[in-house]
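User: Show me a protein chain along with its predicted structure.
Assistant: Here is one chain, sequence first, then C-alpha cells.
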Amino acid sequence: MKKILSLGFVSLLFLFLLAACGSGTSDNGQSEASDPEEATSETDGEVYELRLGHIATETNPYHLLALEFKELVEERSEGQVKINVFANGQLGQERELLESMQFGNMDLAVITSSPVTNFVPEFGILDVPYLFEDWDHVERFLDSDVAEELLKETDNVGINTYAFIPRGFRSVTNSKHPVHTPDDMKGLTLRVIESGVYLDTINEMGATATGMPWSDAFTAMQQGAIDGQENDYSINYTQNVFEVQKYLSLTEHIFAINTIMSSQTTMEKLPEDLQQLIADAAVDAAKTIAEHNREQQDVLKANLLEKGMEINEVDKELFMNAVPNTQEKYSQQFGETYFKGITDLR
C-alpha cells in the first residue's frame, strides 16, 4: 500500500513539474516574462505611496504640474504608485523640501530653481540677470544639451532633477509708484529670494533688497515693512499680490524656472521599471505645463489689470546696463561654460 502511494505521489509530482515548465514557455520557445510588453515590476502588486510637496497655492502652475504628474504616474502604473500632493508649504519651504529629499524624508517636490543653488551652485546660472532674451530663447535652452547637463548636476547631492519648467519673467512690483528707470528704484525696499544673485541684482538696479522666505512676504508687504517684491505673472496673480501692491513694472530681469525633483533614497527603494516610469512622467508633465504656462501669460496679465494693478513697460536697456557687475560675478561663479552655452542659443 505504501509503495502504491509513493508511486502515485511521484507521478503527481512529475505532472506538476511538467505543467510548471510548460507554463513558463511560450509557443516561440521564449520565456513569457522576458516579453517587455508583458513584464511587470519586481514587486508586482505592491503599492507605493509617495509624497510631493510645493509652496504655492492650488491655482498656481506649481500645483498644475504636480497634478499632471500625479495623473500620469497613477495611470501608467495602474495604481501601483500613488502620489499625494501637498501644496501651500505644508511640508516645508523650498530649502526644507530639498534637505528632506537629500535625507530621504521627502519623496518628490516642485521647486523653483533658485533655492537649489544652495546645494548645487551651478543652478545659479539660471538666475543671472538678463540671461534670457525671450520665451523662444528659454525654449531653445530647454531643448539643448546645456539643459541636459545642468539637470545632472544634482545627482551628486542625492536628488534627481527630471525637468525644467518655464514659468515666466520676473518683474518688480511695489506699492509706491511706477518704475520706469533704475532711478525710480531708489528708496524702495523689495523682498527677494534668499540668494546672493537676487540680492545683488536688485541692489544694483537701484533698490534695497532684503532676503525673505515667500511665506513671510505677503504680511511684510501688507504691514508696510517692505515696499514690494519681484515675481512672475503667475505668482503675482495666484498669490494675490495685487491685494497689497499697486504697481507692476516689467523689468523682466530674471526668468523664473521651476524643477520637478525626487529623492534618490526614495527612488532606490522602487523597482527599476517604476523609477523609469516616474522619470518619464515627470518629463511629459513638464512639457505639458510648459506649453500651458506660455499660453497663460497674456491671460494672467489681463487678470492682474482687472484686479486693479497698473502695469507699465520700462526702459529695459537702462536696467540691463545697470547690472554688469552682477552678470560678470555670477557668470564666473556659477560656470562660464553654462553661461556661454545659454547665451550662444540667442
